[in-house]
């Protein structure tokens, strides 16, 4: 089935933009600085600017005026390529519609992003993208007043979002409470308020200490995961590119190529909750609610067959009942007992090997050292 | 000998440049001294000709308010290995050890490892919180921290994954890539003990959680005993403010222990009575062994050394005769007491000369000055620390652990120096 029958369909699909009177991107006074913040949701997958390369998603340089699905060195979905072949070209209107609901516009797109709900976010993002992406019509489109509409704001604290509205006021305006009693040797610093400690103290321990009240089901988790996690970690937790694999890998830890996942390797479920809550989705940390994190954690248990019921609900009440299978296989650091360390005697100085030493392996054979001439070669191993 | 043509990027002199005969062009300053025959008879033009810099005025004092290296050193930069990680925002690059000497790493060359990019933090808005099992949970501003008595200490910082790509065998041709996840700078900061005492430690506290302010909110659990022993909360490196990529405005210094624990953009210290089992100490930074079990809390960086020159990126370009073999040694257990160097792949060893300060948990510089006869060398170095640990061979490590540990590969490195001066990363019998 053709999603975009020639120009007619494109005109129809984007009629919504026309109804608003103007292309989406110009419907409201667009603020590229605010758009830069919106782009945080995109940057884990899309690069833009000088030297930008394809990542999980295509680079966005020159995207305005580009035919959809047309970068030669990026592997698009079939749906996106077909849309381009049928005449879809990215501009304020088409890109604005797509960003508002990617899968509503291109059914079958690889982009696992739910869409920007606020029209304002779309407009601001488009304004910023126009500025950053260069390309044929970027300069012409730039609104001269946009730059001066708002001076560059001071860097925002990454934690501002989940906190109360009033905490976004400049911290200079904050007057700390007077300490009742002096503390320590120097009486430097001041007592942290309970609210301040609560705002930052979000770590969870294996014994459940720190778990916030809340709950979420496997099926709720699947929805969140599909929209916000699958683009990097794969629909089934299989991982895209070099992004972490989250599921499977059982029984591989003593293989030549072990697959270390939540199910096969991680010792504690608390780490999943803690890490997703503090650092995921990548590039938009702290955006999930506590219930969302329970749901995603429940879904990861499901992907790893620790639970099998889609209606399963994980909560602060039952959390510590669920253990990950590899927990018993972690042990203390016993390097000092290894043969080469246990014997701390004077090392051999002469005739330490029986005969002349021979070369048995050469790095040049693999030729994965980065330089100008082997850009595509992949070596093995990882740093994390 | 010429395997591939093409330009040499900006390694100068690179191994390939050397192979393709372009090294002479890159080394314009030294080329003249090597010219035989006629040129020598007429005199070295570097001397007989009046150079531009000898005739015309140079730039004035403010041409570079924050100075930069000579343009002729433009190749001395950090480099990454693009295939190693999914994205440069959560990745690593490497210190160009082959171009450096002494024991101090310049700030701009210290390798980088981030988990969510470099946080840009206004120090006026930065806070350090201490909470958990303390009498008074506290918040410090940067100004508060700078009113505590401070100390200066020189320490190496090594990523636990340094040399991690070499477990399965020789793979990367350059000590920048095989060993470049290490640096050594002077830190200025406040002993962590002073800050914890200011909050008042409760007797039940045994572990400390350190947390960063970046978008990964990076966390590690540290035994309280270590925290009270020699850890620093640092705001300066090599005399100037921390670089953004090294944690500006504040980082934890955990001497001799894996670099991942030196939390950057440090914003919180929590005292607890058990480890916190964070992502970076469970799914990562645990050492998978051959039998499928894994070691955790492998904090100490073991005794290690590497010859930085000659090395694949620093070939021998001067032919036989006097040759300086030099390298670095370090140990998380304390000082380096000795470094031995082998020219024949570990069959015979001679003790190298340690030069410069010998400080606990800092890089040590060693030299072996030889008269090279132009024959093939299989260079190795073997460090011994003051606790008596001897750097093991790669084979000994593999026998004990297998090849899937990723972390803590401190095996003895071999460089093959060929008669033509080309150097390659090899494994030997």
**Order of neighbouring strands in the sheet with most strands of chain B:** 4-3-12-7-8
Largest interface: A-B, 95 and 133 residues
Number-wise, the strands of chain B total 23
Structurally, the number of domains of chain B stands at: 2
Cα-based radius of gyration of chain A, to the nearest Å = 27 Å
Q: CATH fold name of the largest domain in chain A, please?
A: Cytochrome Bc1 Complex, Chain D, domain 2
Taking the sheet with the most strands of chain B, its summary is: 5 strands, mixed
CATH superfamily of the largest domain in chain A: Cytochrome c-like domain
- Beta-strand portion of chain B reads 25-35%
Q: Unreliable segments of chain A (pLDDT under 50, ≥5 consecutive)? A: 1-27, 136-171, 372-376
The overall average pLDDT of chain B, rounded, is 92
Structural class of chain A: mainly alpha
Number of domains of chain A: 2
Report the CATH architecture of the largest domain in chain A: Orthogonal Bundle
Number of helices of chain A: 16
Helix content of chain A: 25-40%
List keywords for this structure.
heterodimer, A: 384 residues, mainly alpha, Cytochrome Bc1 Complex, Chain D, domain 2, two-stranded antiparallel sheet, 31% helix, globular, disordered N terminus, B: 429 residues, alpha+beta, Sulfite Oxidase, Chain A, domain 2, Immunoglobulin-like, 5-stranded mixed beta sheet, 5-stranded antiparallel beta sheet, 14% helix, signal (chain B), MoCF_OxRdtse_dimer (chain B)
The gist of it:
Chain B: Residues 1-34 form the signal peptide. Chain A is mostly helical and 384 residues long. Chain A has 16 helices and five strands.
List the helices and strands and how they pair.
The complex is a heterodimer of chains A (384) and B (429).
Chain A: H1 6-13, H2 15-19, H3 32-38, H4 78-85, H5 92-100, H6 102-105, H7 119-132, H8 138-141, H9 144-149, E1 190-191, H10 194-200, E2 215-217, H11 218-228, H12 230-233, H13 269-279, H14 290-303, E3 313-315, E4 330-331, H15 339-342, E5 359-362, H16 363-366
Antiparallel strand pairs in A: 2-3
Helix pairs in contact in A: 3-7, 5-7, 11-14, 13-14
Chain B: H1 15-19, H2 23-26, H3 28-34, H4 38-42, H5 45-48, H6 52-55, E1 79-80, E2 93-94, E3 127-132, E4 138-141, H7 142-145, E5 151-158, H8 175-179, E6 182-191, H9 192-199, E7 207-212, E8 219-223, H10 224-229, E9 232-237, E10 240-241, E11 251-253, E12 266-272, E13 287-288, E14 294-295, E15 304-309, E16 321-330, E17 336-342, E18 350-351, E19 353-355, E20 364-372, E21 377-385, H11 394-401, E22 414-417, E23 423-428
Parallel strand pairs in B: 3-12
Antiparallel strand pairs in B: 1-2, 3-4, 5-6, 6-9, 7-8, 7-12, 9-10, 9-11, 13-14, 15-16, 16-20, 17-18, 17-21, 19-20, 21-22, 22-23
Signal peptide (chain A): 1-29
Protein name (chain A): C-type cytochrome
Domain Cytochrome c (chain A): 30-133, 216-304
């Amino acid at each position: 089935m053709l999603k975009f029958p020639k120009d007619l369909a494109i005109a129809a699909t984007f009629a919504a933009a026309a109804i608003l009177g103007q292309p989406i991107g110009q419907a409201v006074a667009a603020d590229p600085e605010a758009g830069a913040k919106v782009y945080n949701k995109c940057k884990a997958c899309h690069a833009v600017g000088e030297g930008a390369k394809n990542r999980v998603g295509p680079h966005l340089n020159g995207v305005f005026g580009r035919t959809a699905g047309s970068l030669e060195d990026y592997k698009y979905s079939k749906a996106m390529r077909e849309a381009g072949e049928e005449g879809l070209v990215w501009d304020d209107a088409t890109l604005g519609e797509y960003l508002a609901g990617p899968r509503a516009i291109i059914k079958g797109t690889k982009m696992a992003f739910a869409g920007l709900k606020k029209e304002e976010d779309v407009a601001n993002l488009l304004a910023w993208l126009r500025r950053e992406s260069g390309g044929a019509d970027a300069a012409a489109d730039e609104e001269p007043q946009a730059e001066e509409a708002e001076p560059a704001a001071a860097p925002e604290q990454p934690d501002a979002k989940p906190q109360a509205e009033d905490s976004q006021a400049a911290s200079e305006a904050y007057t700390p409470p007077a300490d009742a009693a002096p503390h320590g040797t120097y009486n430097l610093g001041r007592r942290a308020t309970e609210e301040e400690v609560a705002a930052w103290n979000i770590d969870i321990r294996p014994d459940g200490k720190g778990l916030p009240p809340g709950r979420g089901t496997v099926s709720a988790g699947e929805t969140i995961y599909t929209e916000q996690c699958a683009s990097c970690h794969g629909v089934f937790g299989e991982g895209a590119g070099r992004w972490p694999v989250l599921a499977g890998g059982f029984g591989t830890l003593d293989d030549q190529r072990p697959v270390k996942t939540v199910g096969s390797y991680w010792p504690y479920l608390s780490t999943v909750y803690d890490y997703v809550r503090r650092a995921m989705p990548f590039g938009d940390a702290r955006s999930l609610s506590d219930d969302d994190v329970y749901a995603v954690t429940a879904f990861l248990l499901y992907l790893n067959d620790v639970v099998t019921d889609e209606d399963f609900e994980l909560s602060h009440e039952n959390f510590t009942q669920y253990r990950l299978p590899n927990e018993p296989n972690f042990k203390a650091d016993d390097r000092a007992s290894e043969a080469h360390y246990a014997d701390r005697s004077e090392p051999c100085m002469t005739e330490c090997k029986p005969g002349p030493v021979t070369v048995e392996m050469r790095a040049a054979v693999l030729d994965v050292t980065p330089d100008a001439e082997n850009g595509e070669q992949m070596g093995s191993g990882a740093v994390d | 000998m010429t395997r591939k043509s093409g330009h040499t990027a900006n390694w100068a002199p690179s191994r390939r440049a050397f192979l393709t005969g372009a090294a002479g062009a890159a080394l314009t300053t030294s080329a003249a001294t090597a010219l035989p025959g006629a040129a020598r008879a007429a005199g070295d033009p570097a001397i007989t000709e009046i150079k531009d810099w000898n005739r015309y005025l140079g730039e004035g004092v403010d041409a570079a308010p924050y100075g930069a290296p000579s343009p002729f050193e433009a190749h001395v930069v950090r480099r990454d290995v693009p295939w190693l990680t999914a994205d440069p925002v959560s990745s690593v690059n490497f210190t160009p050890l082959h171009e450096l000497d002494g024991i101090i790493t310049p700030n701009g060359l210290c390798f980088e490892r981030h988990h969510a990019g470099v946080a840009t933090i206004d120090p006026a808005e930065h806070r350090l919180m201490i909470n958990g099992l303390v009498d008074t949970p506290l918040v410090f501003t940067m100004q508060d921290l700078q009113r505590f008595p401070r100390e200066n200490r020189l320490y190496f910082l090594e990523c636990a994954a340094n040399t991690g790509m070499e477990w399965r065998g020789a793979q990367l041709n350059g000590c920048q890539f095989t060993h470049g996840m290490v640096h050594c700078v002077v830190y200025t900061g406040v002993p962590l003990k002073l800050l914890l005492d200011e909050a008042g430690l409760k007797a039940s506290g045994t572990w400390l959680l350190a947390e960063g302010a970046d978008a990964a909110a990076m966390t590690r659990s540290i035994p309280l005993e270590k925290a009270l022993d020699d850890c620093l909360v640092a705001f300066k490196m090599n005399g100037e403010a921390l670089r953004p990529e090294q944690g500006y405005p504040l980082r934890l210094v955990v001497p001799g222990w894996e670099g991942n624990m030196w939390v950057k953009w440090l914003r919180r210290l929590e005292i607890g009575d058990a480890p916190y089992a964070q992502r970076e100490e469970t799914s990562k930074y645990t050492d998978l062994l051959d039998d499928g079990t894994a070691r955790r809390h492998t904090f100490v960086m073991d005794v290690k050394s590497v010859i930085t020159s000659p090395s694949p990126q620093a070939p021998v370009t001067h032919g036989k005769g006097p040759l300086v073999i030099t390298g670095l040694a370090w140990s998380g257990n304390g000082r380096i007491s000795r470094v031995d160097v082998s020219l024949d792949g570990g069959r015979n060893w001679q003790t190298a000369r340690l030069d410069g300060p010998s400080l606990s948990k800092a890089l040590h510089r060693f030299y072996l000055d030889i008269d090279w006869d132009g024959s093939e060398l299989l260079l190795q170095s073997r460090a011994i620390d003051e606790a008596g640990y001897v750097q093991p061979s790669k084979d000994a490590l593999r026998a004990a652990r297998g090849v899937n540990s990723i972390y803590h590969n401190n095996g003895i490195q071999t460089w093959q120096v060929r008669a033509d001066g080309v150097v390659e990363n090899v494994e030997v019998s």
